[in-house]
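Comment thread on ticket #2218

A.B. wrote:
> Attaching the input chain for the structure job we discussed in standup.
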Amino acid sequence: MKTITTIESLREIRREWQLAGKKIGFVPTMGNLHAGHLTLVQAAKEQADIVVVSIFVNPLQFGADEDLDAYPRTLAQDTHALQEMGVDVLFTPTASDIYPRGLEQQTFVEVPGISYMICGASRPGHFRGVATIVSKLFNMVQPNIAYFGEKDYQQVQVIKAMVTDLSMNLDIVAIATKREKDGLAMSSRNGYLTPEQRIIAPLVYQTITRIKADIESGRRDFQRLVQQQVEHLSQAGFKPDYIEIRDAYNLQPAAFEATRLVILIAAFIGKTRLIDNVVIEL
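C.D. wrote:
> Ran it. Output below, let me know if you need it in another format.
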């Protein structure tokens, strides 16, 4: 595996792949890799000739009250895991490479509408930061396929819309959420949980699976279903951010006659914000 730190070096090797007609699979990450990330890498290895993984903790997607400096950085451990997986290139650019004129002067990419709801309402500017860094990385790597986890359901929809709107020539592949044995969605943020918090963290997934079961049994009183689970989570010691039942195709509020729904949740345990989702086919 080659570790590349500069855009110029990446472009040089990318030209070699292009001339050789190689199909490039790309997995963009912020590091602190877990088994969920590695399932994306495995999918890329199965579908592409060359696999590139980037690690860059993107300051543009952190809010004013979110601690960028506290985000876990485990580059040595991540590098070892990617070497074991047989990744071809690890791309680790610096902030000065990515944002040479600084964050305040950076041209940004924003997907209207879908970026402002749900997580976007709770974290203003977050999806602007995501769309901007992902578009920049796509321009640098020029992949044929890029892989993202379904745990960040709204993020995947934002990126798909951006790719369509900007006529980008690549495919976006969403990979199913990787879970711990007790159902908790794997996430870098799980490392922030205390042992006591980790015990109750699976309630996030249990909450949305209960709503899923109720809807599949015929209930359509969505507002009441959500309110019941908000109360249940609050009593268990969580601070719910939102629970939403949305149309899985466009993330608009779910209509009675919708045939594919997604239940999305975000909830705090202490200072740690956990997210999850589950899709329902009716």
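A.B. wrote:
> Thanks. Noting for the ticket: Residues 188-277 form a domain with the Pantoate--beta-alanine Ligase; Chain: A,domain 2 fold (CATH 3.30.1300.10).
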